[in-house]
Design brief:
elongated; Alpha-Beta Plaits; 330 residues
Length: 330
């Protein structure tokens, strides 16, 4: 009597999900094929180190230029400081206004719905700040009386969005009997915002241009690689290889070019900024002393690497989609 064969044990996959042996082996074969294509494509690139390094360096310079323009705008925005704070209205009170009246006016303005905050600067505080920062301390000490007036620094609400409200508030302040002059930096802020907007748009267009250049360089590199392996590709097509199988190592070649070029671009930009940091700090100390160069942060670095790698794969796919049909053996 023949005994029944015991059923094959089922393999358990991730999270306890039962997997058939055939499915598991196909998954392993699929992952092995991609791993082989990934590392073999890198090995093939390193067989011609001179051409490989030149291609990566050209790509890295293009990416570094785009990243440098982006960081230039980012650092320029830091120079502007708090733009909303610069949109305050400086209210110069008349010399006849006493300290008590100035404090009462300050409390009165705080209740205005158009006002965010009010800061009172007495003549003594203004003179002390001027003496400390101007470098004319000895000349100031010769003055018989303090020539500086009492100043109220009024910060409007929604200073950047409500331009008309700022103008209305300035007119109201000028009409007060205690006020000698009310001056705002609204026109300067508008010009600064226009400059920053123009710079951002310019960086965006330049990034698109450099991105297209990266796409073309990688695409042309893949095309040359495909032409050099023309006979190999035709033989694999004759034995029944699919386009997906043939495309795989070339797509990983494009990935490696974009990935390694982005790493090199990050180093170029970082070294460039490190080289400039000391003179920039020396220049900053001559002014406010609060400016520090901004580098690419983690999110921006990952974005650079991800976009460059994606451009590499896209450039390779773009060339392969047309070239593989042309290489099809008759």
């Amino acid at each position: 009597m023949v005994k029944d064969k015991a059923p094959l044990p089922k393999k358990t996959g991730v999270h306890g999900v039962t997997m058939q042996p055939g499915l598991n082996s196909k998954l392993h074969a699929y992952l092995d094929a991609h791993a082989h294509a990934l590392f073999s494509s890198l090995g093939r690139l390193t067989r011609a180190p001179a051409a490989f390094m030149m291609t990566v360096l050209v790509l890295a310079i293009s990416m570094a230029l785009s990243s440098s323009f982006y960081l230039m705008v980012k650092n320029f925005q830091q120079l502007t400081g708090n733009v909303e704070a610069t949109n305050q209205i400086s209210v110069f009170l008349k010399a006849t206004v006493t300290a008590a009246k100035a404090s009462a006016l300050q409390e009165q303005l705080k209740l205005d719905p158009l006002v965010e905050s009010v800061q009172l600067i007495t003549p003594e505080q203004a003179l002390a700040e001027f003496t400390a920062n101007s470098g004319y301390g000895e000349a100031v000490n010769t003055l018989e009386q303090n020539p500086l007036p009492t100043v109220l620094l009024v910060l409007p609400k929604n200073a950047l969005e409500d331009e008309r409200g700022v103008q209305t508030l300035q007119s109201q302040l000028e009409s007060l009997p205690e006020v000698d002059l009310a001056k705002s930096e609204l026109q300067w802020v508008k010009r600064l915002r226009a400059i920053i907007s123009l710079a951002k748009r310019t960086v965006f267009l330049l990034s698109l241009l450099f991105g297209f250049a990266v796409l073309l360089i990688i695409g042309n590199t893949i095309r040359l690689e495909l032409q050099s392996r023309r006979e190999e590709v035709q033989i694999t097509q004759l034995v029944g290889a699919t386009h997906a199988f043939i495309r795989r190592p070339f797509l990983y070649t494009g990935f490696w070019l974009g990935f390694l070029a982005s790493i090199a671009a990050w180093f170029i930009v970082t070294v460039f900024l490190l080289f400039l940091r000391q003179p920039v700090q020396q220049l900053s100390e001559q002014y406010t002393g609060q400016f520090n160069l901004v580098f690419l942060d983690y999110a921006e670095t990952l974005s650079l690497i991800g976009i460059a790698s994606a451009l590499g794969v896209l450039g390779a796919w773009w060339v392969l989609s047309s070239q593989l049909q042309a290489l099809k053996p008759v």
